[in-house]
Amino acid sequence: MTLRRALILANFEKAAVRELAAELEPWLTERVDEVRLEGDIRGFSAELESLTVAERAALRPDLVVVLGGDGALLGAVRAFADEPVPTLGINLGHVGFLASTPATRWRDTLERVLAGEGVTEERARLEVEWGAEEDRGARAMALNDVVLQRGSHQGMVRASLWVDGVWVTNYRADGLIVATPSGSTAYSLSAGGPILEPNVDALVVTPICSQGLSNRSIVLDAKGELEVRVEGASGLVTLAIDGQAFHTLQRGDRVRLRRHPKPSRLLALPGLDPYRRLRDRLGWGGEHAPGNGPGVS
Amino acid sequence: MTLRRALILANFEKAAVRELAAELEPWLTERVDEVRLEGDIRGFSAELESLTVAERAALRPDLVVVLGGDGALLGAVRAFADEPVPTLGINLGHVGFLASTPATRWRDTLERVLAGEGVTEERARLEVEWGAEEDRGARAMALNDVVLQRGSHQGMVRASLWVDGVWVTNYRADGLIVATPSGSTAYSLSAGGPILEPNVDALVVTPICSQGLSNRSIVLDAKGELEVRVEGASGLVTLAIDGQAFHTLQRGDRVRLRRHPKPSRLLALPGLDPYRRLRDRLGWGGEHAPGNGPGVS
Amino acid sequence: MTLRRALILANFEKAAVRELAAELEPWLTERVDEVRLEGDIRGFSAELESLTVAERAALRPDLVVVLGGDGALLGAVRAFADEPVPTLGINLGHVGFLASTPATRWRDTLERVLAGEGVTEERARLEVEWGAEEDRGARAMALNDVVLQRGSHQGMVRASLWVDGVWVTNYRADGLIVATPSGSTAYSLSAGGPILEPNVDALVVTPICSQGLSNRSIVLDAKGELEVRVEGASGLVTLAIDGQAFHTLQRGDRVRLRRHPKPSRLLALPGLDPYRRLRDRLGWGGEHAPGNGPGVS
Amino acid sequence: MTLRRALILANFEKAAVRELAAELEPWLTERVDEVRLEGDIRGFSAELESLTVAERAALRPDLVVVLGGDGALLGAVRAFADEPVPTLGINLGHVGFLASTPATRWRDTLERVLAGEGVTEERARLEVEWGAEEDRGARAMALNDVVLQRGSHQGMVRASLWVDGVWVTNYRADGLIVATPSGSTAYSLSAGGPILEPNVDALVVTPICSQGLSNRSIVLDAKGELEVRVEGASGLVTLAIDGQAFHTLQRGDRVRLRRHPKPSRLLALPGLDPYRRLRDRLGWGGEHAPGNGPGVS
Q1: CB C91 within 8 A of CB C68
Q2: Would residue B293 count as lying in a domain?
Q3: Which of A211, B130, C51, C208 has most Cβ atoms within 10 angstroms of its Cβ?
């Protein structure tokens, strides 16, 4: 991996992040032609969005290093949504599903990455378009999930789900989550959804607090085109992209979702146990502690 | 579809099945060179199993018509497990997930099928091998699911799950279900699993009454090789293949599962609503009755 | 039941409600000394709340008849929260859990009620107080549930649960529902909670989309005093009373809940099948249709 | 508490149990008139059952000390089912819901108990009778649960639930669990049921892998009489009492359940945190680790 340009994205409100950035920046500057450090991920993403595609391409780095948790990484991925940049998430808290490198190992991981020995995990993303029937002008990209949900003072959302133009079912619920495999371990899991391994070529649709009690998740082929129609609501409906960007829908609006042709590319240290994050997240380690080795005590 | 040889499989205990067979057999005999009618699906499958592969191949029809529900179809598919035969399930009760043609429409469906206009749905199957570590002699095929479960007088089963040789997690539960997309709407659904569309290239692993409360289903890429190891049990563990064939496992035994290269081929009338069975099964029709057309009232 | 004064509460936006009110009012006027008809339940409740306790008591009827569904009945019960009035809910849509008399039977039900032959179901209510630690000035009454929930643009709510001053557990979730048996079949059920028979002397606490996956409901003795503390939130937290009145909480606020000494008194026709509403709500009728009589087909 | 006679029940297969018994027996002999030590709980219970009620009463101790986990305690309680004896469960493994005293604290707990300062928790029990319609000869007592379940080679059980002679609903499932509050944290929890605080005067009915997807638990007033009828099954149905004693039911059989007038009396050290066991069992401690004190970090 011959790197000309690296970008460090971090949220400087946390002291630990500032400290890590102060160590990391000079280290990286010695090894890469050009290093840029940004201390406000949201601000930086917003700044990029105001540029033309060509201007944005001109700023495009060869490597993004994110200091923070899964939330910071979701924000960083948004910055270069059109043309994903290999991204390394260095996690300062619990091991994340996206930001998988613990802060204690940033040095050896980056060394391996710069030596071209990093592992690149491709993670499917969702492309979302929404608006009134005729006019679906708005568009965004999600790495984890796209969520339709009622306002907290409002009644149920009524929505219908369509796959490749064919009606699947209706929902009467607090909301509806469409998640990628990456997102299957985030909000969708809390709403009762299954876990999808990152390499499963599928999306999962999970209702939130469905009034119908047979509220099961549906796992759909990622090659299809999904549409969610807002059939009714007592007020406005929020459309949340990766839990970070929010838009407003109203009755009759349609949300079209498909897998984006270009996945995110997440970097990691080779040899990491792919299921450890899962066991940690689920508390499985504690409940079924294996004996010596991976057996069962 | 030029058909030389058709086989009708039916369970003759039910009068309605005998009556339908009495109508269907002469109708088919007029249109196909050779028609064979069997009134005991289990018996016929067992008979086939006692033959050599070559003898079985010699008996292989070009079309199987099954009279009955999903259970009958699962049994029929077992009869020609090595080399699946296009199979039409004619359902005498509720519309099934596998036997999707209602009895009232047998004539036009078969006409279309014989005219080569039937729709063929390919349904992934599981190949299962099991036994002690060194010796995994036993082998079977499943269209819906492979289930490990405790005897009704016994304590929890402890099992571990492995994918491509990597440890995923441990279970302490009544049992464990590995299901194909077809099977995701059967027992796995009752145990809390998600629904997988038939064309999703994945398998789903769902624990039954897990002692650990984070008992979520995991959806795994069907290209992987799964292994379930019986780590402990207070007695014998049952291995159930499609809920019809039963074998016995003991502590230390291993069950290896992979997608079989040849899917089952289920015939259906073209133009059937692919999600109607799902809505019927889930009672979604009733709970969220759409207004006129597929909208929401 | 010697009735001096009856109050009819209805929401006049719906034509069917206006028509029923036009029939019911003269019928009741012939049988009761004084009948008052209000066509705006929310407006009427708000008007009452602005009065003194004595003024409100002076207006107190002997019977309230509500035309509408469960939502209308919840609003009507709020109007006389301090001193519950026997209330008959006449349902114009699906049979409700609270408004249990179908519109087609209003006449014979009211005749029985006026003859003193109506059945009175007592339904436990919750008394809620909330505010900062030292000052818990605000107070309300709920028949169904008290819900804490995050705003739709905000992150998880962190809350702790206490019973009689003893810490039970912490939640990190979209919200938390404390429901009476009446409310156990409403929002709490959608969030995964169990059904509590109306006469069970208990409350049920159910998290909404808990991040912890062992998110089970806890059923607590209604004689205890519950407290929910808002430990953290990324913004304001909404406190919803019966899904109709909304208040705002912030970090550090406490919500104290106890069973109110005076239950609501709901009137019904004698001999109604107490479990029919449940089977209807749950779609159990459809899924397990009993044969002739209450057997199983 | 003036104690004349103490009984120590233990399962001598485990070395740790034998060691603890060897310490405990002489200690107790110095403080109580008569101490009896039994090293085979099942054998001892069976022996008692072969005696007359009078003979059994003559053997009745004033205190039972059980060395083992919840399973051992369930067995010990069965020994004196007619007339419960105050029972102290000393737990050699994880803290149990029933056997709540850790082995490290046996001495101070017994000292307090002998000084009359132990806490006695009353735990509701179920009385079960079953048999054909006219003849319900068989009878047993359960502290945790009564479970009807299908054999592992058999199809669904169809059963109906009745409360005080009124039909509630039908089930088509792997089985049905009727649990006391004590049992709500055992098998019922694994099957998706809620947690009932020990002092809630209720029972909970939870289906196991219900084919109907609206498979929610129902919490019923413990003052009612429940009946479960076996409407159909493809083979024999097992009736399990506290997961330890097994009986056989067939189509048409009825199981009648009511709260037994005499609860079990479990002894414990005063001041134990009543919710710690719950948090441990549910892994809540780990997932929502409180900061200093019971706040939320």
Answers
A1: yes
A2: no
A3: C208
Report yes or no on C290 lying in a domain: no
pLDDT band, very low/low/confident/very high, at D179 (cuts 50, 70, 90): very high
Predicted pLDDT at C2? 67
Q: Are residues D85 and D137 in the same domain?
A: no
Placement of tokens 């809540």 in the chain? D284
Decide if pLDDT at C206 tops 90. yes
Backbone φ, ψ for residue C226 (5° rounding): -100, 145
* Mean pLDDT value of segment D65-72: 92
Q: Is the pLDDT of residue B157 over 70?
A: yes
Note the pLDDT of residue B10: 94
Q: What is the pLDDT of residues A79-126, one digit of tens each?
A: 888 889 999 999 987 767 888 888 999 999 999 999 988 889 999 999
- The lowest-confidence range among B181-185, C204-208, C267-271 is C267-271
Identify whether residues D117 and D130 lie together within a single domain: no
CA pseudo-torsion sign C27, C32, C33, C38 = negative
The Cα–Cα gap between B203 and B220 comes to: 5
State the average pLDDT for chain D.
88
Model pLDDT, residue A291: 37
Q: Residue ranges of chain A with pLDDT lower than 70?
A: 1-2, 95, 136, 283-297
Q: What is the pLDDT of residues D265-281, one digit of tens each?
A: 999 888 778 788 788 77
Residue partners of A296: CB distance under 8 A and separation at least 6: A288, A290, B158, B159, B160, B170, B172, B231, B232
Return all residues near B205 (Cβ < 8 A) that are at least 6 apart: B161, B176, B177, B178, B179, B217, B218, B220, B226
Q: Considering only CB atoms, which chain B residues are within 8 Å of D208?
A: 174, 209
Q: Which one-letter amino acid corresponds to residue A253?
A: D
Residue in D184, D189, D231 nearest the CB of C295:
D231
Alpha carbons A264 and A254: distance in angstroms, whole number? 25
DSSP B275: T
Structure tokens at C19: 């028509």
How is residue B183 written in tokens? 């099977």
Specify the CATH number for the domain of residue C38: 3.40.50.10330
Our CA-based measurement puts residue A278 at a distance from the nearest CA of chain B, in whole angstroms, of 8
The residue range of the domain holding D239 is: 126-259
| ipTM field | 0.91
Q: Do strands A101-102 and A237-241 pair parallel, antiparallel, or not at all (unpaired)?
A: unpaired
Better-scored residue on pLDDT, D100 or C260: C260
Instruction: Give the per-residue pLDDT at C296.
Output: 33
How close are the terminal C-alpha atoms of chain B, in Å?
A: 43
| DSSP line for C24-49 | HHHHHHTTSSEEEEES-HHHHHHHHH
Instruction: Note whether B28 and B39 are same-domain residues.
Output: yes
Residue ranges with strand state E in B174-244: 175-179, 195-196, 202-208, 218-221, 226-233, 237-241
- Domains in chain D, number: 2
Pairing of strands C34-38, C5-10: parallel
**Contact flag D202-C199 (C-beta cutoff 8 Å):** no
Of residues B191, B215, B282, nearest to D209 (C-beta): B191
Shortest Cα–Cα distance, D209 to chain B (Å): 5
CA distance D240 to B258: 36
d(CA A215, CA A172): 10
Tell me how crowded residue D249 is: count the other CB atoms within 10 A of its CB. 24
Active site residues of D: 70
pLDDT given for residue C212 in this prediction: 83
Q: Say what the pLDDT of residue A126 is.
A: 97
What whole-number distance in Å separates Cα of residue A173 and Cα of residue B174? Answer: 32
In this structure, the answer to whether residues A213 and A242 fall within a common structural domain is yes
Q: Is residue A294 part of a domain?
A: no
